[in-house]
Specification:
Strand order of the largest sheet: 5-2-1-6-7-8-9
Order of helices and strands: EEEEEHEHEHHEHEHHEHEHEHEHEHEHHH
Number of strands: 15
Distance between the termini: 22 Å
Helix content: 25-40%
Number of helices: 15
Shape: globular
CATH superfamily of the largest domain: Glycogen Phosphorylase B
Structural class: alpha/beta
CATH topology of the largest domain: Rossmann fold
Radius of gyration: 22 Å
Number of domains: 2
CATH architecture of the largest domain: 3-Layer(aba) Sandwich
Length: 374
């Protein structure tokens, strides 16, 4: 997706889409299910879907998006701020080169965290320094960083503060907060609607059942807790489901629910019904927007240290805990603290709501509007 913006008193946005993924019901390989989002995502701005000339169109490989019409679009457009999201496709590089050639202010918004980058080999880093420093990054005017780790990534490759603009990863905070239960009876009724246990603490996971999200870590930690008064709800779907079901059956876990795929309209209800949120991903989780979603419903957090957003959104001991990725016992221990201490959960919930308010669409718009058109 590329957003062409002309900055006047307000932000005039035209989004150039290179794929209709998420609009039409298609197989999502990671969910391992047919997916089409059920909330309107084309309202409130202009959008254009560019023809894809790739022989095998796909959002899963570098050559899968070949929307050459973007060159003509950028050539004919008034000078604008051009936001290119990432460099994972050939069309991203084409958009950056064309944007620079035709006089636009080129902004690159990626999500790579430094912690993940440093896991690469010396040779790999040297090659990326060559490609980024001598080619790609020289064509970009401003780098839109999503959080601390992403900012550190750009600084690692020599980008100065003057070229860095904070555009935080955010969700529609208002949409999620609108479903925040006002009292215990309201929360109980919501649990009834979702057919969840009406009493006891509910621990929530929301994400694909896939390797990088390590859902089996949470199942193992929940097993270690051995608390029949607690329930674990895992919202999602994916390839690891058979393994998860085997583990649940082998350990005789009666109070675990695997929901299957839940669409955007209903996901906030699960956050609203829960008491604690967990994300246990590895370094391939470059952010983790489910954490933003959970915080908008005032949930305390237990998040792995390799999850990209942990450095920004989790204040250890304030709105939750950060534990070493893969350390199932540490995960169980922090969960146990929050389960036993209702006051700690309440204080953490207030902190979550305060912290996530700084990661908003409003902040993104404010900072984008400050970027000058060349």
């Amino acid at each position: 997706m590329y957003a062409q913006m002309t900055l006047c008193e307000d932000v005039d946005v035209t989004v150039l889409y290179c794929s209709d993924q998420g609009l039409q019901k298609k197989i999502d390989r990671q969910f391992n299910a047919e997916v089409a989002w059920d909330i309107p995502i084309l309202e409130g701005y202009r959008s254009v879907f560019l023809k894809n000339y790739a022989r095998h169109p796909s959002v899963y490989n570098f050559w899968g998006l070949q929307n050459w019409g973007i060159i003509t679009r950028l050539w004919k457009a008034h000078r604008s701020v051009l936001v290119v999201n990432g460099w994972n496709y050939i069309i991203c590089l084409v958009a950056i080169v064309a944007g620079r050639l035709f006089g636009h202010t080129v902004c690159l918004r990626g999500e790579s965290p430094l912690s993940r980058e440093l896991k690469k080999t010396r040779r790999g880093i040297a090659l990326r320094r060559l490609l980024f420093g001598n080619f790609l990054f020289r064509l970009v005017h401003y780098f839109l960083f999503i959080g601390r780790e992403n900012k550190a990534f750009y600084e690692f490759y020599g980008i100065s503060d003057a070229r860095l603009v904070f555009t935080p990863y955010a969700v529609d905070n208002a949409r999620f907060r609108a479903l925040l239960p006002q009292n215990s009876p309201e929360k109980k009724r919501l649990r009834q609607t979702l057919k969840l246990p009406e009493s006891g603490v509910i621990i929530l996971y929301s994400g694909k059942y896939m390797a990088k999200k390590r859902p089996l870590d949470l199942l193992e930690a929940f097993c270690l807790l051995d608390r029949p008064d607690c329930n674990l709800v895992m919202v999602g779907e994916g390839d690891l489901r058979p393994q998860m079901e085997r583990f649940i059956a082998e350990k005789g876990l009666k109070n675990v629910r695997l929901t299957g795929f839940v669409n955007q309209t209903d996901i906030p209800r699960y956050y609203a019904a829960a008491d604690i949120f967990v994300m246990c991903s590895d370094a391939d989780e470059t952010w983790g927007l489910s954490v933003n979603e959970a915080m908008n419903l005032n949930l305390p957090l237990v998040v792995s240290d390799e999850t990209g957003c942990s450095a920004d959104l989790v204040r250890h001991g304030e709105n939750g805990f950060i534990y070493p990725t893969g350390d199932v016992r540490a995960l169980a221990a922090f969960l146990d603290i929050l389960i036993k201490d209702e006051k700690a959960r309440l204080l953490a919930s207030v902190a979550s709501a305060r912290i996530v308010s700084e990661y908003s669409y409003e902040k993104i718009i404010e900072n984008l509007k400050a970027i000058p058109v060349r």
